[in-house]
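ESCALATION

Customer reports they have been waiting on this structure for their group meeting. Please prioritize. Original submission:
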Amino acid sequence: MEPEIPVISTPPSQPTIPSVSPVFPKKNNLVAILLSVLLLITLLISGYLFLQVQKLSKQLAQLQVQVQATPIPSPAEVSSPTPDPTANWKTYTNDEFKFSLKYPNSWDIKMLGSNNSKTLIIAPQDIIAKLPDGGFGGGSFLTLSINFYDQPQSIPKSDKSWLIGQVSSTTIDYKPAQRYTAQVLQDFPGFAKGDLVDTVIVKNNDLYFKIDFMKKEYKTIFNQILSTFKFME
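Update from on-call: job pushed to the front of the queue and completed.
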């Protein structure tokens, strides 16, 4: 007999299982994107705030240096109010025409004219000493004169004797007034060609004050006298 050949049985083949990649849910992807965007925004804001803080710190440091460099004035260096140049002047009061004013101590006052026409002269004492008891020589003594009228006074028009110049509005003791200049065009008693007269017209109650001034070297004093003018009721 022929020997038997053993038969080797093979196990059945196993089915091949394909590999599958994991699939993440779409929701997780969206959350990751949002978190990334928020992180980026946070970084940008933090960087901007950091730069602003650095800028502010630099400005504060510069300001502190400026403050430290600025000297603090001593009490002696602190400016004091400008002293009143008329504080120690003499005071003139006129009860008849209801007004008062102040004038320099080296000046004097004299009333000239009759009852119907009066003129108050305010001038240095040497000029007042030359004034006659009656009328006065017009411009030759016209340092400052006040004429009193019970009729309205207005700015005259230019003519062959006077050239009316600058006209302006002002106040005398809070009352409205007009101020103008008049240049003398020809010689006549008391005035010489080329003289320049500065005039102020102001009304108090029913009385008109016509204040004339001519001496240029005393213009500052003239304005100071006007500033002290007070009307009485």
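Sent to customer with the following note: The helical segments are 26-69, 125-130, 219-227.
Escalation resolved.
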